[in-house]
Every structure is written in C-alpha cells, then in structure tokens.
Amino acid sequence: MNENIIPCVVVKPSDMKVMEAFGDRVTFRLTGRETGGRYTAFLVETPPGGGPPPHVHEREDEWFQVLEGEVEFFSGGQWTKVEAGSSVFAPRGSIHCFRNVGNTTLRQLIHTAPSGFEDFFAAITAEWQAEGGPDMERVVAISADYGISYPKMD
Hints:
The protein has helices at 32-35, 117-128, 136-145; strands at residues 17-21, 24-30, 40-46, 56-57, 61-68, 71-75, 78-82, 87-90, 96-100, 106-113, 148-149. Helix 2 packs antiparallel against helix 3 (136-145). Strand 1 and strand 2 form a beta hairpin. It is globular. The chain is an alpha+beta fold. A six-stranded antiparallel β-sheet has the order 1-2-3-10-5-8. A three-stranded antiparallel β-sheet has the order 7-6-9, with no helix packed on it. Strands 4-11 form a two-stranded antiparallel sheet. Helix content is 17%, strand content 38%. The chain has a single domain (13-144), classed as Sandwich (Jelly Rolls).
C-alpha cells in the first residue's frame, strides 16, 4: 500500500476544537492530525471592526472562502472589498490581512497548507487567556516561532 495515502476521515462538530484569540472565534474542522500534515481547515468568526494586523506567513499558503459578512482584504499594498461567496488566496511570503467592515459577524472558511496553523493558534489562545490579557511582545515572539511576522506598514 502507498504510504502517502491516508484514510478518509470524518470529524463531527462535537469533536472540533474551538479557540478564541485576536477577538476571533475559530473552529478547527480539519487539522494536520486528520490530513496527514497536508493542510488545516477552520471556520473563523470575526466581530464587526475585527481582523488581524497585516502579517506574513513564511510556512503556509492561505486560502479564504468568504461565507457571510462584509470584508476587505489587504494585499499588494491596497484594500479591496470582497463580497460573500468570493475566494481569496494569500501565498506564503505575502503581506496580507482582512477586516470586518460590516455590522454583523464575518464568517470565513480558511485553509492553510501545509498544516501547523492550529498549533500556532493554540499557543496564541493560551496567551490570550492569560491573566491580565495578552502580552503583545509575547504574541509577536510566539508568532515568530511559527514563521509569522508583522511587518511595519507606512
């Protein structure tokens, strides 16, 4: 049997890990554990006005499927409004981010390849749950451990 073939996997909603950080609620639907390290799939719910700062992933490509809400993506030095139903691809090494510009929760299905983003988010979630809230210098250091950086923007 080919060792690159992994079995079909079903993950029930009750088995999906839910984490919160950066103001987002993230439900991990598939992780490297289920995909043989190939990719991670997660649902992100972002409140109005929320979204991560501009950042760069050195280890993974990221694909966004906008399910509900009003969102703008930053890429190539500019903001672009993206409607629900759209897909966005942010290749590793690109500066990108998104922001919820609507009045309702933004819902996106996001994939990263290869897997590993789930480990980063677990570490960040622990920092967000720390007494007194997150230490942003620590957040930057944890991010760097996972190949994620926050470039200074003009």
